[in-house]
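new request in #modeling-help
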Amino acid sequence: MGRGLGGRVTSGGSRDAVPGAGPPKMAVCIAVIAKENYPLYIRSTPTENELKFHYMVHTSLDVVDEKISAMGKALVDQRELYLGLLYPTEDYKVYGYVTNSKVKFVMVVDSSNTALRDNEIRSMFRKLHNSYTDVMCNPFYNPGDRIQSRAFDNMVTSMMIQVC
Amino acid sequence: MEAAGAAAAAAAAAAAGGGCGSGPPPLLLSEGEQQCYSELFARCAGAAGGGPGSGPPEAARVAPGTATAAAGPVADLFRASQLPAETLHQITELCGAKRVGYFGPTQFYIALKLIAAAQSGLPVRIESIKCELPLPRFMMSKNDGEIRFGNPAELHGAKVQIPYLTTEKNSFKRMDDEDKQQETQSPTMSPLASPPSSPPHYQRVPLSHGYSKLRSSAEQMHPAPYEARQPLVQPEGSSSGGPGTKPLRHQASLIRSFSVERELQDNSSYPDEPWRITEEQREYYVNQFRSLQPDPSSFISGSVAKNFFTKSKLSIPELSYIWELSDADCDGALTLPEFCAAFHLIVARKNGYPLPEGLPPTLQPEYLQAAFPKPKWDCQLFDSYSESLPANQQPRDLNRMEKTSVKDMADLPVPTQDVTSDDKQALKSTINEALPKDVSEDPATPKDSNSLKARPRSRSYSSTSIEEAMKRGEDPPTPPPRPQKTHSRASSLDLNKVFQPSVPATKSGLLPPPPALPPRPCPSQSEQVSEAELLPQLSRAPSQAAESSPAKKDVLYSQPPSKPIRRKFRPENQAAENQEPSTAASGPASAATMKPHPTVQKQSSKQKKAIQTAIRKNKEANAVLARLNSELQQQLKEVHQERIALENQLEQLRPVTVL
C-alpha cells in the first residue's frame, strides 16, 4: 500500500502521516459497537470535541441498521461485511462495517483526506476485525465488556491520525 | 559455588562493615590500617568457605564461621610477609589465635599489626603494636587473594579477584619474578599486587580487590596509578584469565542476580533475568500443563486456561494482558511454550515485576521451544534440561523466590483437581528434591522420568475435568441393596406396629419414662417380644412415671439384650432399625441363606437408607419425647405439690394423735 522506493508513502495524496511511516493514519475516530448498540470501544483524536464524534457514531448506527435490514434475512449470508460510506457530512465521512455477529465498526475520517480510497478503508476494517477477533480469543475477555486490550489499542492508534 | 560466593559477599560485607567500625580495643589502627586489615580479613574470611588450604602448622586452626579467617589463607598471608617461621609462630601466639583456636577479627588484626611490627624490625611483642607502624608487607604471595588461587578448584569464588589486583610500582619488577615463580607453582594464579611500600598504595590494592568489586563498592576500584599497571599485570594474568574470568563472570552474574532480586530493573548485561525461565520453573510449568492437558504437544483451551490462571488471583485485566502477551498466535489456546510464558509472566507479576510491554525474547515461543525442547515422556527431556542448566543458573535465587510463590499458586489448583493431586504432589516433591540438588540432576531426572512415566497412564485415566472426577467419586455408591437384607420396608411394619400403640399411649398421656440410657444396638429376635412387653409397661399410668421408670428399668435390665433399646419409644426406631438388621440377619436367616449373595454394597446402602429413616424417626421421636418430658415434668410438679399438701395434712393430723 504505502511504501515507495524512497520510503515515501505514495498511495493517496497529501496526508498528515509522516512519510515512510507505517500504515496510513487516516481515521479521526474509530468505534466498535456491540450488537446491542452500545459502544465496546470508541476512540477519537483528542483535539476534537469527542462528544461530537460520539454523536456522529451514534447517529450512524441508524444508517447501519438500515443497511443491514435492507438486505433481508435471506441475504444474510451474502451480505457483505463492509458497508461503505454511511453518510458524509461537511467535514467528515463515516464508514461502516458489520460482522456476522452484528458487531459494528464505525470509522470517521476527515473529509479533507480526499485521496482515501475505498480499498484502504476496507483494509483498515479488516485489520480492525482481525484485532477484534484476537480480543475475542482471549478467554479473559467476556463478550460485551469494553475492550481493554493493549494490542487492540496499539492497532487503533496506528490507524488514527497522528496529531503532532 | 554460589554458596561460597554468597558467603563471600556476605562475609566481605560483614567484615567490611565490622572492619570499618573500629579495630580491636587494644589496638589503635589508623584509618588506612583499618581498611587494609578489614580487607585482608575479609579476604581471608571469604575464603573460609572455600577449600581448606594447606596451612602450615603454625597457622591456627580456624573455626568454621564467617567471622573467622581461614587458616589456609591466613597462613599464606603470614608467609607472604616473609617473616621467619618462628616469628610467625610468635605472632600467632601473641595475637591469641592459638589461644582461642581461630582467627577472629581481633586476632587477625593483632597479627597483622605484629607482622608490621616485625617487618619494621621491632620485636614481636604486644607493646610493639601500640605504636604507629607501617602496614605489614606481604611480599611473596602478593596479596591474600592470590594465595587462594593456589587451590583453584577449592577457592572458586576468590578467583574473581584475579584480574583486578594491581601491583605496586616499586615492587613491580619483583612482582614479575614473583609472578613467574608463582606461575610456575600454580599456573592459574594470577599476579597480584605486591608489596606495598607505602600505605596508601597498599591501601588501595586491597580495595581494588575483586571482593570489593563483588560487593559493588567499586568506588575505589582501579585507582589511576594502577591502571597503568593493569596492562602489565594482564600478560601475567592472561594465563589465569581463562579460568578466572569465567568464574568471575559467574560470580558477577550471581551478584547481579542478587541485585536483580532487589531491584526491579537491572540494566546490567542480563536484562532478561526476570523473564528467563529456569529448569525448575520449566519443569513445574510443564507439570502444570500436563495436569491441565495430558498431551503435552497439544494445547490448552482458553476456558481451561482461564480457570487455571484465575486462581492466581491476579486481576482480570492483568490476566487478559498476560494472555495477550503469551498467546502469540492468538488462537485462543495455549501450547506448551505459550503456557510456560504465560505462567512465567503470572509468577513474575505476582512477585511484583511490572508486566512488559511486549513479550520478552526469552519468553517467545520459538525461544522456549528451542531452549527447552517439547517434553517427551522419556529421559531426553531432562538431559536437555541439564544441558541448558548452566545457562540458566543465574537467576537461581530469584527463581527460588518465584518458586515458592509458584508453589503457593500450585496449592490452588491442587485442591480442585483431587484426582491428580497425588501426582502433582509427588511431582512437586521431586521438584523440591531437584531444587537443592543442583548437581544431582541425574538422580533426580531418572526419578522424575520414572515418576512421569508412571504418571502418564494415571494421567490419561485421570481426567482433568472436575465433572469426571465427581463422576468417579460417584461410582463407589452402590446400587441400593435389595430389600430382603435389611427389610427396611418389611421392618417398617414392625415399626408401625410399635408406633401405633405408642402413639395413643403418648396421646393419652401414658408417657414412656424418660430414657436413661442410650439404646444399645443389640439386635435380637426377642426384640419384638420385648417390645410387646414394653408396650403394656408403657401404658401404665404416668403418675407412676417416677416409680415406673426404675421398674421399667429393672424390667428392662432383666431383659438385657434389647431393653435399653426398648426404653425409648422413639428409640424404638433405632431398635427397629437394629431390629431390621437383626431380623434381617437372624430372623430370616433363612432369607439370608436364600439369597446368599446380596451384594454387600446393597446391604450397606440399604442399611444406610434404613439408618437414615431411623434417624428421621428418631428425631421425630426425640421431639415427641421432649414434649412428653416437659409434660411429665409439669405433672411431676403437680404431684409434688399434692404430696406436700398431703404431708401437711398429715402433719396437722399427726400431732393430734401423737399426743
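bot summary: Chain B is about 65% helix and 0% strand.
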